[in-house]
Amino acid sequence: MTSIETQLTELPAWKALGAHYKKINDLHLRKLFADDPKRGERMTVDAIGIYLDYSKHRITDETVGLLMQLAKEAGLQARIDAMFRGEKINVTENRAVLHVALRTPKGQSIIVDGQDVMSQVQSVLDKMTDFSTRVRSGEWKGYTGKPIRNVVNIGIGGSDLGPVMAYEALRHYCKRDMTFRFISNIDGTDFAEATYDLDSAETLFIISSKTFTTLETMTNAHAAREWALKSLKHPDAIARHFVAVSTNAEAVAKFGIDTANMFEFWDWVGGRYSMDSAIGISTMIAIGPDNFRAMLNGFHQMDEHFRTAPFERNLPVLMGLLGIWYNNFFDAQTIAVLPYEQYLKRFPAYLQQLTMESNGKHVTLAGGKVNYQTGPIYWGEPGTNGQHSFYQLIHQGTKLIPCDFIAFIKPLNPLGRHHDLLLANVLAQAEALAFGKTSEEVRNEGTPEWLTPHRTFVGNRPSSTILMDELTPETLGKLIALYEHCVFTQGAIWGIDSFDQWGVELGKALAMRIIAELEQEIDHHLKHDSSTNTLIKRYLRER
Ligand code: G6Q
After folding, report:
1. Distance 452 CA to ligand 1 centre (A)
2. Which of 210, 212, 220 for mutating ligand 1's site (highest number of atoms within 8 Å of CB)?
3. Residues with CB under 6 A from ligand 1
4. Does residue 404 contact residue 351 with C-beta atoms inside 8 Å?
5. What is the distance in A from the centroid of ligand 1 to the CA of 190?
6. Residue 312 catalytic?
7. pTM more than 0.85
8. Are 286 and 170 in contact (CB under 8 A)?
9. In 3-state terms, what secondary structure has residue 537?
10. pLDDT digits (tens, 9 = 90+) for 364-421
11. By the 8 A CB rule, do 308 and 361 touch?
12. Greatest CA separation found in the chain?
């Protein structure tokens, strides 16, 4: 064991939490609420327009105190300060982690490797603003002189999930006479379905790739070029219909995109933290530069809150620590994120990358194997749909699944009773999970004895409720940054590198080998295991 591992599980607060867990893990939320009539008012934080109710968690004041103590003993504040200072806290890639710089307002400076990154950030934002204004107004014309009506982002992972999620989340604010599509998968269906009804003369492709080498993105980008040239004919058309977002100018030029039409970002922006960099150019075209800046402002408000608020009133710190409480002491394996907002339908998918690619690590910063659990599985769907499917397991299954309920006070599309019904449901779910329904209550309703156990809800199932005013670009920024910093908090305490992703490498390398075997029809001399060899042979024989 390395010293870092020893440190976490040997920390006095960690040990105290272990002992404390044994004392309180049977304590029911019914009792906690009965003993403290003000619990639901007290265990809340109201900051920067986010109301977090964390009273329905299996915690006491002592738990909260010990979790805060853990954050202190693990040196969380020093890690936060190091990130904001631009230190190279992504140690395995020797990089700074500065997505916070992307939303820092003009006039401040952050120095990385002797350069003020803030002036670079502002100049790319200005370039994005100029470009998106021209596309939105119709001033930017396609090769045949028609204005752009369709924008297709080609990217994958961090160069796709953020733009897709933001487009869906902010549809209400989007330019409705334009069409936005997103192609990520190497499955040709994705390309075919995204382009089948588009007129190439009115279509702009944004090739979004930090490295500009990613197999899926480059394959789709080449397909897009062929698709466009089929009708536009002349290679000069590429300059009017293709722009790039990348850190790799050389590869962009080699592809044939004029680097004047390239929007830059930097190695200190991780893919899954890049939706507010130039990777967000599709978002900016969709919602307009002012809305995009409002979104950045929302991110920044959360950054400042995270950097400065005392831990016990700090939203991401609290949420991060509660996640650790269940993950490491209750052995909970997953966290459900349940937005009661249809526009957030892609938010859980976005969070899956953010949380699981960041904290799905089993090795500490010092390189030793952890002797505790790290990142939980995040999953979810918008309510109320999930209530009619997987909520059954959350209510009455054998697994403990802490839930994050997300809701907005004001609807973007007021319609009859809809919003009251939606909100009634989210509040009811959190209530039902926490307090359940006792056998006695079930019996008193006249339920026969044999049916009583089936209709009993044991309750004591924890949840947070995150209530915000209205879904706007600004509130979306706050919400995303809330989870970014929640992930940071947890990674800092687990002592892992939340900013690398070596786990995606092996599959990529093996795929390259198999691609060659499939394309050259090599079915003899296959050197894989017998399962992979047989599958390859079967595919080659039957395709
Ligand atoms: C994110 C990951 C990964 C990455 C994609 C796309 O943090 O690094 O999801 O975003 O693999 O990479 P490129 O942008 O380089 O194409």
Report:
1. 51
2. 210
3. 156-159, 209-211, 214, 217, 270-272, 357, 501
4. no
5. 18
6. no
7. yes
8. yes
9. helix
10. 999 999 999 999 999 999 999 999 999 999 999 999 999 999 999 999 999 999 999 9
11. no
12. 79
